[in-house]
Amino acid sequence: MPLIHVQSVTKQFRRRLRREGFRGTFANLFIPQYEAITAVDQVSFAIEAGEIVGYIGPNGAGKSTTIKMLSGILVPTSGAIEVLGLIPSRQRKQYARQIGAVFGQRTSLWWDVPVIDSFYLLRDIYKVPEMQFQRNLALFSDLLGLGEFIHVPVRQLSLGQRVLADITAALLHDPAILFLDEPTIGVDVVSKERLRSFLREINQARQVTILLTTHDLNEIEKLCPRVLIIDHGHILYDGSIEDIRTRYASERLLAIEFEDAIPDFSLEGAMLKRSQGRKKWFAFNRFETSATDLIASINLKYPVADLTVTEPEIEDVIRLIYQDQAGRMKLELNSFSALPAWNARLRSCTGRSSGCGYSITWW
Question: Is the pTM value of this prediction over 0.70?
Answer without folding.
Answer: yes
